[in-house]
Amino acid sequence: MKKLLLPLLFIFGLLTSNAQSESPYEWDWTRDGIWTGAALGGSALGLYLIGEKDDIDEAEFARIQNDLQNDAVDINFLDNWVIGKHDEDASKISDIPFAISFAAPFAMLFDDEINDHTGQYLGLYIESLATTAAMYSITAGLVNRSRPYVYDDSGETGLDRRKSNNGQRSFYSGHVAATATATFFMAKVYSDFNPDASTFGKVAIWGGAAALPATVGYFRMEAGQHFLTDVLLGYALGAATGILVPELHKKRMDGVSFYPTGGRNFMGDEYKAMALKVQF
Predict the structure, then answer these.
(1) What confidence tens digit (pLDDT) does each residue in 4-62 have?
(2) How far apart are CA 152 and CA 74, in angstroms?
(3) Is residue 8 part of a domain?
(4) Domain containing 241: what range?
(5) What pTM did the predictor assign?
(6) Domain count of the chain?
């Protein structure tokens, strides 16, 4: 049985190797190991900074209360309509598309082109999320900006919640940033592995990638967790990371060049042409 099994496994391995599609990306264990490790380290540092944040300063809280009573809250026009929102149900709803976004990229493993490079794909996905996590957590740990619900003086939001250090993490939206990273990463990688995919397929996947973080952002604002500018920045940074991390890993074409050439053919006729040179 063993004598029969070994040749079969060998043949199966050859078939699998020959059938494997070519990836548009390059993965370097040294470079990407350092990158991912540094991003995870940055995330840990950011979480430490967040944990060490102080509650809102009493003088600042008194100023907010006074501004609310005098209708003098100094918030820019893009954000002032979110002041005081505090819908906790909306906060719970926002967690649904947030969770879906993390799972969505795994659906791409059903794509034959991507499935041939599962390890590389998952490595790039983790690297992208870790990069976003580091940027967000360090920023949230260093920057104090009151969440919209801190401005809710209706009595529905308790003072303890309004004064807690968690209320000082409005800038910027981590939920939206992480969601955008996951969905735009999925769309970018799908497009790179399937350049000849149908227009409908590409519109559908990019449309979904854009819609999911926008949905999360809407509910985060309704929940009073973030202002519009927090959501917009989180969206932009998350989408940029989801697109740029794969793009920076694309194989370079250093060995391919085009150049003009000319001369005479074997019949003595002159010709001019463009030559393609490929170096291995």
Answers:
(1) 444 444 433 433 434 467 899 999 999 999 999 999 999 999 999 999 999 998 998 99
(2) 15
(3) no
(4) 31-259
(5) 0.81
(6) 1
